[in-house]
Amino acid sequence: MDKTSFKIFIFAITISLIIFVGLLFLSNYVNKDSEEVKLEYVTSPNIFFTVENCVNKYIQVLQAKDTTAVYNLIDKKYRNDNGITINNALANNKNLGDYNSFTAEKILEDRDNKNTYYVKGYLTSSMNIDTDYTGNRTSYSLIIMLDFKTHTYSVIPKDVEVIIDAQ
After folding, report:
1. Residue 124 class from Cβ within 10 Å (0-12 exposed, 13-18 middle, 19+ buried)?
2. Separation CA 55–CA 52 (nearest Å)
3. Domain range annotation of the chain
4. Phi and psi (nearest 5°) for 104?
5. Which of 12, 36, 138, 163 has the most Cβ atoms closer than 10 angstroms to its Cβ?
6. Could you tell me the pTM of the whole model?
């Protein structure tokens, strides 16, 4: 092999290696975002109503516009990953308007992360109780994380309706 052929061979190996490593990183990055969540329906009435109650308490705090309480209820990892501060905690949540009550339709538990619940239901306004059953309601979903040791909960205010409906 002469010098020119050897240089071309080394160059081709280097380019191939760079492309391979780049594809490996890209593949790893894409897989992290598209990890499938394994969910199963909550069968315990106690858990179901506990989670629903947590959502209602969270909505009350949102309606009261208590930024410190909202900030404290949002999951710490979610706050850090999304740059949520006390100053922007309310802005990072869905505007609830006049809706002040939540009714859960589906609650699913993450099989891999026990005590993590994907919740879907609807918001209603207790001021218009007659019309709430005829359509004055809006869909709402989020994630509730229960800590049974400390008897606390945290919220991930992320719309997860598509994930829940896929189950």
Report:
1. buried
2. 5
3. 1-35, 39-165
4. -80, 135
5. 163
6. 0.71
pLDDT per residue as tens, the chain (167 positions): 677 888 888 888 888 888 877 776 665 544 444 456 688 999 999 999 999 999 999 999 988 888 899 999 999 999 999 999 988 888 877 777 778 888 999 999 988 888 899 999 998 886 655 544 555 788 889 999 999 899 999 999 988 878 777 76
Give the separation between CA 59 and CA 101, rounded to whole angstroms: 7
Residue 147: which H helix or E strand, with range?
strand 137-147
3-class SS of residue 73? helix
Looking up tokens 């992320």 gives: 158
Find out whether 132 and 120 touch, Cβ atoms under 8 Å: no
Return the DSSP state at 106: E
Distances (CA, A) of 94 to 23, 89, 125, 138: 37, 11, 15, 12
